Amino acid sequence: MTRFIFSFFGAIFSIVTMGTMMVALTIGAIFWMYGRDLPSHEHLAQYTPPTISRIYSTQGQVIDEFAQERRLFTPAEEIPELIKHAFVSAEDKNFYSHQGYDLRGIASAGVEAIRSRGGSVRGASTITQQVMKNFLLSGDRKMERKIKEIILATRVEEALSKEKILELYLNEIFLGQNAYGVTAAAQVYFNKTLSELVPHEAAFLASLPKAPSDFHPVRRKERVTNRRNFVLKEMYENGYITYETYQSERLLPLLSVQNGDYTPYGRSLPPRDYFTDEIRRQLSRNFGEDQFFSGGYSVRATLDPEMQVEAAHSLQRALEQYDRGLGRWNGTGKTIAADKLTSEEAWREALSNTRVTRDVDLVSKWYPAVVLDVRENELQVGIEGIDQNDPRGNIVPRKDTSWFKGNLFDNFERGDVIHLREMRDDDNGNFIRWTLRQVPKVQGGFMAMDVNTGRVIAMQGGFSYQNSVFNRATQAQRQPGSSFKPFVYAAALDSGYTPATIVVDAPIEIDTPYGVWRPQNASHKFYGPTPLRTGIEQSRNLMTIRLAQEVGMDVVASYAEKFGMYESMGRVLANALGADETTLYQVVAAYAMFANGGERVQPTLIDRVQDRYGTTIFSHDAAPGNKRVCVNCDDPNLREGRSPRIENDRERVMDPVTAYQLTSMMQGVVERGTARKTVKLSVPTAGKTGTTNDAKDVWFVGFTSNIVAGCYIGYDTPRSMGRGASGGGMCGPVFTRFMRKATAKYGGGKFRAPEDCTFIKIDRFSGARVGSDASGPNVVSECFRDDGFSTIVFGGQGLTGSFAVSGSFDLIRPNEAAGKAREVTTSTGKKAVVGPKAGFGTLSSGGLF
């Protein structure tokens, strides 16, 4: 009997032992099989998650953010203990004691699944396992993935500290509302930093991993509150908060940004505009779009926020003024269905979902509104963000529509989405009425930059970024018209001409493959022999054509390319009048080189770029061609009170005398020429207007001693803006409004004359030299080069009267060999020989064609 008992228990023991060994071998085989080809966990130690790239203004304020995943990486040592305790309590209470997996948790989950017959299957993954799933594995619910999780979790626990694992988890986890990581979530839900969160807010964030897309603080408020309170209870039971704290925190209401309890973080940022979007475009091109959106770059922009607002308003005023002058109501083109107008709640929701411009703040904020009723003498409207019982009312009177044609019934229907702004008394600020506004069809661009550093301080690429993201300052290819003429004159001045050289303003015919081209002045008049200065001041087309012909279009084009106006300019005479297309960005940058004395300057919207670790990976000042050199910083003999001399290490693209001569001539454009009526500043200003054929594009580009700015206006699909449109009349006021603020802030002074200049007074109409004591509106003090000064011939002796407008014209054929002198006849019958080049020794008294 005893032997039987021992045999029986021996058999049972053998079976158990063998079974245990088989189970162990099976489990070992499974773990060996699944552990063979697992991804390496070693790169987790160099974790670099996708994070937000931020753009800062010159004052250090965040002005825009770009990200694929909204994440703000925070090292473990900077994450408050309260946050760690909340997530550990919610997700893995044994985190600090287990080795990567929790057998009790797995058993508990298994028992619950059996009891519910598969109806309730909850995860038993530890925080370490969740890190493995998020970083190295897929998210599918399969036994195979669980096994791999456990294997990898065990390996990671041996390689990384608990704090490092928690850092990975708290920065990677998705918490809803496009928030990745706890820092971004605190900002999204509470607009707070992690250190500002209190226990019930930390518990709310720790509730979200369970169902981040479903746990909405408004739509699922009760469910989320219950989950939050459960986490608070776990924090108390785990010893992280006191019982008193638990009891008080669980009774607090669930407040959030989404419920309107806190101001959204986004409200602290200005609306996205053309400036920051252009930075995005440039850095995406330089670093790659994926890298920019996920690299966590810190970008210091050159933007001056105050001047950016002024640039936007200046351009918007001009566009709106032109648009309202046309007398047509265009509206937004958007409508709300009639069935949505039956209740205030319905039309407000429909209006908020309608995509219309909301970033215009011209005079005052523009509000989207919907027409609720059209009456004979008024419109009844519903205004976004304005209560229907607001004391300002909800009526637009008929008299506010006097600027466009037709009555209210002709132009409006119920459901039309429109824009309104307040009209207030200029004297006392009292509200007068709601006034109709519309985004103009005509568009334009504006840009301003420092002439010495190339730092762009303001850029506006259209009327409204939300209306059209196309940046007309950098992307629109437009004809610059007469604003190109300074480059023709620059080529001539560097070829030996002077501001006093005579060029004959008379009819000309040019033989082209498409027929004979007969260019004309804007006035359709001819003015005879005229100095170069007056030619550019009055923007004479015929003088410019003759000058380009004599200098040669190859020379003119090479100048334009050297200044960055074009990459490859066409060598045809029409391009001397600005027929070839370029961008405002390129034109303004080129004009900066006139203003700074002829040195190359590269425009930039970015001062520097730093990576996520704070390492500078781009600096405009350190880039080749932009460096500044201290000439005498090491000089021991530097006098006390005198600062060292800093010089720019930049390439010279133009002789400084030529740059000053051209600047002086363009000062005449502002003081006496085509911009005299609209460009008026308190500091010396130079510039050039531009108006293309049929006024399809109008320009003004000008500069002071330190700031250059440019504007163009035109339809996106070029068409005539009418006979009254001109660069001086439309863009001149834009420049003036902006530059008045710019000069008040940045100052301005006289343009510095080079040492090689010798000043002589001349008559600006005849080019003749006058006495040193002469004065009057016709007298200008002109800069001449010292070298070869004695050979200069002043004025137009021998040429009198004007050229005949009828009869045989001088026919210029561009393909003819250059270098031949020609004889021309004046209206008095006298002869003058015109040479091919403005060499002082060969310049006849008859002037130059």
Low-confidence stretches: 30-36, 796-822, 824-849
Number of helices: 22
What share of the residues does DSSP label as strand, in percent? 15-25%
Net shape:
elongated
Distance between the termini: 137 Å
User: What's the pLDDT, averaged over the residues?
Assistant: 85
Could you tell me the number of beta strands? 28
Biggest sheet architecture: 5 strands, mixed
Helicity range of the residues? 25-40%
Looking at how many chains there are and whether they match, the oligomeric state comes to single chain
Structural class: alpha+beta
Query: For the largest beta sheet, what order do the strands appear in spatially?
Result: 2-1-5-17-18
Cα Rg: 37 Å
Overall description:
- The protein has 849 residues and is of the alpha+beta class.
- The chain contains 22 helices and 28 strands.
- The strands form nine sheets. Strands 2-1-5-17-18 form a five-stranded mixed beta sheet.
- Helix 2 crosses helix 8 (199-207) and helix 4 packs across helix 6.
- It is elongated, with a radius of gyration of 37 Å.
- The model is unreliable at 30-36, 796-822 and 824-849 (pLDDT under 50).
Descriptive terms for the model:
16% strand; five-stranded mixed β-sheet; disordered C terminus; 33% helix; single chain; 849 residues; alpha+beta; five-stranded antiparallel β-sheet
Question: Could you write a compact summary of the structure shown?
Answer:
With 849 residues, the chain is α+β, with helices and mostly antiparallel strands. Strands 2-1-5-17-18 form a five-stranded mixed β-sheet. It has a five-stranded antiparallel β-sheet with strand order 8-7-6-9-10.
